[in-house]
Amino acid sequence: MHQKFRDQGVVFIGLTPEPEDSNSESLRFLQNSRITWVNGYGAQKTLEAFSTQCFPSAWVIGRDGKVAWNRDDSESIEDAIAKALKTEG
User: How far apart are alpha carbons 41 and 14 in whole angstroms?
Assistant: First the structure.
């Protein structure tokens, strides 16, 4: 999905509550999953603000800074990204 949308201005960001100096589990996950986008560490407060209950979790944030999609929505994440690109471009 990252490759499909990155040239359309979509930015993917990964977050983990682990501090950068103790992130060996997260680094293994990123390497095994071949994730190449930016990842932030020590994001506990941000994840709490999003009421994160499990990992991995995902959101589509529009250019207006509002959540346009989360896993509770019925449409797919790809459809939500495509819709956000059409309405915010």
Answer: 9
**Which one-letter DSSP state was computed for residue 38?**
E
Count how many residues are written for the chain: 89
Distance CA 72, CA 60 (A): 12
Helix or strand holding residue 79 (H, E) = helix 77-88
CA-nearest of 41, 37, 12 to 24 is: 41
User: What are the pLDDT digits (tens) for 27-83?
Assistant: 888 889 888 888 888 899 999 998 898 878 899 998 888 888 998 889 999 999 998
pTM: 0.74
